């Protein structure tokens, strides 16, 4: 998301997390996922390692650690991330404007209920 790249600065680090799950590949950090309760507050995979299943593995580990539904927000400027989350069983619950780096950005609010909890008997597979 080049449009947002300049908004991530060292002077304003990411928010604190209850848990940070780190993916390491060849002795280097390839990505990380932050959890605040059952909410994925950040998921980042180094561009050199994207498309290698790291994001999927991080999300699987988060789901393993969380009790109840897993939630997240994703920038509407990032449809690739939305597709990943939908492939992993997340559904959009709504859209909102969220504060971000001293400004605001539009995000999709997404949820992945635990098995058997989809409304109307629906399932993540459709």
From TrEMBL:
Residues covered by the N-acetyltransferase domain: 1-115
Alphabetized UniProt keyword annotations: Acyltransferase, Ribonucleoprotein, Ribosomal protein, Transferase
Pfam family, one: Acetyltransf_7
Keyword Ribonucleoprotein: yes
Sample GO molecular function, one term: acyltransferase activity, transferring groups other than amino-acyl groups
Annotated Gene Ontology cellular component terms: ribosome
Domain of life from the UniProt record: Bacteria
InterPro entries linked: Acyl_CoA_acyltransferase, GNAT_dom
Protein name: Ribosomal protein S18 acetylase RimI-like enzyme
Organism from which the protein derives: Microvirga lupini
């Amino acid at each position: 998301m080049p449009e947002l790249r300049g908004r991530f600065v060292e002077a304003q680090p990411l928010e604190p997390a209850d848990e940070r799950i780190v993916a390491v590949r060849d002795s280097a950090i390839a990505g990380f996922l932050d959890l605040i309760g059952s909410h994925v507050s950040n998921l980042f995979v180094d561009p050199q390692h994207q498309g290698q299943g790291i994001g999927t593995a991080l999300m699987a580990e988060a789901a393993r650690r969380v009790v109840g539904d897993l939630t997240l927000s994703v920038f509407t400027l990032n449809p690739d991330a939305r597709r990943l989350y939908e492939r992993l069983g997340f559904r959009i619950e709504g859209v909102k404007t969220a504060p971000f780096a001293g400004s605001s950005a539009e995000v999709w609010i997404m949820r992945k209920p635990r098995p058997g909890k989809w409304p109307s008997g629906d399932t993540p597979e459709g």
